[in-house]
Records
---
Amino acid sequence: MNILHDNLARLASRHQDVAAGVKTATGGVLTVEPARTGVPSARRSGRWIHSAYDPLREAQTWADTHAAACQSGEMIVVAGVGLLYHVEALRNKLPPDVSLAVLIPNLDEFHDALAARSLGSWSESVLWLPGAPAEIAETLTKIGRPIRCLSYTPATVADAAFYRAVEEALRRGIAHRTGGQLTIALVGPIYGGSLPITGYVKRALETLGHKVQWIDHSVHATSYDAMGTLKDQRNRQMMQGRMAEVLSQWTLASLAESPPDLVLSMAQAPMTLPALEHLRKKKFLTAMWFVENYRHLTYWRQMAPGYEFWFVFQQGACLDAFRQAGAQQVSYLPMAADPDLHGPMSLSEADRRIFGSDVSFVGAGYANRRSLFPALLHQPWSFKLWGNEWEGADDLRAVLQLEGARIDTATCMKVFNATAINLNLHSTTGAGLDPQADYVNPRTFELAACGAFQLVDHRSELHRFFTEQEMVSFQDFGEVPGLVHHWLHDSDARQAMADAARARVLSEHTYVHRMRDLLGHIGLSQPDRVGSVLRGERQQEALLARCPDDRPLEALLKDCPSGQRIELKDVAARIRSKGPTATLKREELMVLMLDEYRSETRDLL
Amino acid sequence: MNKRVLLINITRMGDLVQMGTLLQRLQHEWPGAEVDLVVDQRFAPVARLLPYLRHIVEYDFHRLVDESRAQTKDVVTLYQDMTRWAAPLVEARYDRVVNLTFNRRSGLLTSYVGAKEIRGIAAPKDGDVTIFNPWMAYLTDVHHERCFNHFNLVDIYALGGSGSGPFAPLSLTIAPDTAQWARNFLAPHGGQQTSWVAVQVGASDPMKAWRAELFGQTLAALSRQTAVGYVCIGTEEERKAIHLTQTTYRKAGGTAPLCDAVGKTTLPQLAAVLSQCRLLLTNDTGPMHLAVGVGTPVIDLSVGHVDFRETGPYGPGHWMVQPDLGCAPCGFDQVCLHHACKDRLVPDQIAALCLHVLIGAAFPSSITGARVYRSRADEDGLGSTELQAGREDPLVEWYGRFWRRFWFEEFTGRASQVPAHPEPSLDWPDALRVMEHLTPLAKKLVSNAEELVRLTTRRPLPVSALQQMQRHETAERQQIVALSMQSPATASLAVAMVRDTHNDDGSDLAGLAQSRLATYRRWHKRLHAVATAFHAFNTAQRLGRRERPRALPMARST
């Protein structure tokens, strides 16, 4: 009791409201037990939050790992409370000009921590933040320091939703304050479903004002396909593997031409682990948006340690699996639509005749679709099937359009727009509906963005994106004929539902939204790099404010165009633009020297 | 007050060791000189083994590359970090800055620091580089006529950074505790009872690394003939190649003990381990120069783009093997797809050379596919080499010695003691013909340059006449260069002349014209000197007697 009393007194000296809140809390969330070393350790819901052997040493290791990245002037935001060993270790490790805040999702847990061990004077230089996620984010944003988020994972599990909400609020805060243009190298795949998404991502990033260098590997698809004709499987795989290595080197060579702030790869981008490790060694930031079902395509296991940031469209077990495979930071980033491409269309009568029907489906002939779709034949409505890889589906031949040709995006949009009821059945290799129906596919968002009505198989994540007034889903394929019958005869209700879904996509689920989230997340993790650009701290005005006593540097910066991001290369280019006969000042020599070092490329390959 | 000198030698470990002679020469020139060094952080430990250095000013230039390229720091932070670091250098007000790092970035640093006198690359005016000091300029010219170069980098550093003086070998000082560490390191493997041969399989550039499996075969062949032990040295990045050497060695029946020092030593410890060895078999690498510095004989396998005459082991007691292949050594920026030169070196023959160095076995004079040289100090007190096996192109050999004497006398003003060839070169008539064509062109070029100078002094400036004269001058120079490049008797002069034109240091039009005139006059004088030397053979032959080798015309009497 004395420990709690003393701790509350210490806390009240700076955070009276928080101390008052803790007083009214009852505790009982943590089970405190002595560790082998004798100091208290704790469990929550049966899981150890701190080491059962040596919590102090464990906390020190955690602090040592994270403190190195923290920069002067930053606000470090720690997720995970427990018994605060890790907070104490980090506070003691950080210099005073680095601020530290701790998120408190649960005052009962904080109560337990304060009752278990005495807080030292270190706790007085910590900002304790209970409350609603949005309020916390606002408080942190108002402080105005670059924010870096750290997570002490064992203590975050039980309040994962809270921490996620705070992070999302912070992320959006950063994203909406975009002040500078990033240069992003976008590494696309050779072929496949992530290829068009790469295009959408490019457009979204450009819409946000960033500069995108698309390293387009689809130009190599013909060679890759040619290797696919080799009959010997081992030779084929070896050759395709070698080609992936060459393309990986090609990516490095392309990056050397103009080093970006961020290398963003899309799923299936031909990047090898050694190439990624080399990029990391050379301080390039790398991220991957893995827009594939992680259960089906599993090469991420080998690649997991390679990228600094992973973004996946599945949650829960997927995030855990990536972390276990060695991914340092893995975050949820769902699919979306691109309203520039996916939108309502005015179709001619001829187009409506060709592409329209009561019910249609666009997609490849996966096993579950082959087994389920015959039930849609011989119904009192028309049904058209579009897409490729339907070879051998003889019973569906009568409804298969364009002899099973691959459908391009333009045609797809026409079908979506011309169809009364679009069927959206997520693929799976089994016979029925996807037994692990979690993620929501791009088609869901694309159909919605078109203002097209759809029936979609139920997904556990669907409610995150659409309400029941915006999207109709079915749990059993047997429901489909009845649903078609019902909605086909109520075009006004269909239209209302489709309009609502489209409005939802436009306001929340475009690739622009996703890229804003992605950059916000990276900005939070890298406040001194991507974060500082997004906050506008590399704009001319912000840089000038940092060198009031350095006249020569000030003059160089003022010589650059105002209102723009200025980097070393820009100042150097300005100096060089004076021409070959100009006599250089000493500070100009310095800038040119630094720029010569910046221009080095040979160590990248 | 003692003179203050700053050396800038950033990029390579070997280059650091190779400035050992310069450090001694500076003390010879300015006794008690306070010499500071700017060096990359990675190589600072090697710098600490060198004599006569006051301050070693280190910086992590690799980190600077990474941070500036990936923009991890903004321009303000980068600028302020670097100016803070460089401030003491500026404040030191050096009497001389010698930039031994031949790139633009170090030139910009040199000009930023400033000094009463600058030698080497600097960027004083517009960010473009200028080379100060003829020896330093020679170092860039040499790449155009590499096969004729007989100056080791060590001597160019010493002559360019200071001046001529007595022969001064490279030397490194190993601290007693580091030496003891090396003895302890080798003790479990046989210690000083074993005749250790160090082996450096890797290289900073794969182009200059002999094949790992051929190393393995060589070591196996040697182990069958004498009792030795091998110390494998190198970095962890070279582990793959070293592993291949060891595997091949065992498969080829190698029996001697292998001591693995790869990645287990600091650079001073590596130097200490090398000092315990009887021989280093190596590619042209930094450790090769460490071995030279601690007095361990070296066999340098000079493959790829390496030319041992430039960067090989300095001073007596070392051996160099060069493949006998038309394209060897190739250019620095060459990307070679065949590496055929490496297959010219035969493992059994390299093993025989090792045996000769280790136990004085018969010299393998019947070596095929390669030339073997032995290093020495020559009559002028410079590092040199002597062919011991194989055949050198007579024209290359003749011009190599000719230009060695010519440039020494041209730049030092001293008569070279290296004997001149008593006979003219095989292409002597062709060379004379080229020079006869060039002589009137040279006079015209100088005359036009003089007219250009006159025009620049007129007011108002006769712009049209100047432009016309400049066009003439450019056309004439191009004609002269094209003609000069046809003969090895004139090509080197043309290369130096063209490079001099890039060094024009006038601040205005008149100054630039004066500078250009000086360049052409210098070239003309050199051309005249070479022509005189070639005509002397004609006179000697006409007189039917052999004359004593004479100093070239530009040498002052000493």
---
Amino acid sequence: MAPRGALKWAILLALRFAVGGIFLWAGATKAWNPAGFAEEIEAYRLVPYRLGVAGAVYLPWLEMVAGAWLIFARDRRAAIATLVALLLLFIGALASAWARGLDIRCGCFGGAGASEPIVNALLRDVAMLGALAVVAWSERAGGREKRGESGAAADTLPA
Amino acid sequence: MRRLPVQLLLLWGMAAAPAALSALIHPHRPSWTGEALRPDEITAATAAAWGRQILWVDARPAEAYQRGHIPGAIHLDEMNWESQFGAVVDAWRPGQRVVVYCDGGRCQASRQVARRLREEVGLPEVYALKGGQDAWLRVAR
């Protein structure tokens, strides 16, 4: 592997571990106390009570599975799509709370990080969205290269 | 390489199985039968985020207050309103939020006391704690 290729590989691996690890940790802290997470969702005053409860039970596990998938799977498209959707959901909820002047805690890591300002959480989510865009772009470029190589090989096969 | 929709179904399904189990047997599973948060209520999680900015008011009967209460809470129940509400007014500082609580999710005393503190005493930011002291103890643990 050329030094530039190795550097790119290392950066992408680090991004995958960072984003996947954050989601694994965030999901685990919330899955530990789903009743507490249901209260955090409720404080946003965005969704009906039962929908919030369903989210409190399901979202932590979705975060953990998608985070692990991003780190360990070979084909990471489903994890990227799921995590992007989750981040857009979280950014929308945080921005809405911020715009309405709600003085609530993020709830991003269960009871941990209780005093974190909402703007910090927003910036972190936008940064993770950027990291996922880089990973997705490199996967796409890698896929194109592979298809190009196999196409070129097919062209050189004897008739 | 599986197609993306199949992968997505697999991923979401893998999350759904433990989530369903969690909803059934987790010791801290949320209740499905609760009520939506009212405009004059806050959750214990929000109260925890506000921290020391809060003036706590205990709306339970005096015996329950004497058995134990949230540290710093002032007792004010409707039975002793006239003799007790002055203590809340004396303790309140401008800009401070008042949070009134009673026992658990079903008691109404906190809403009544919070309403009276707003309407009769004129305190600007008074909320009832959803889930009462029980919810606070779960968060403060």
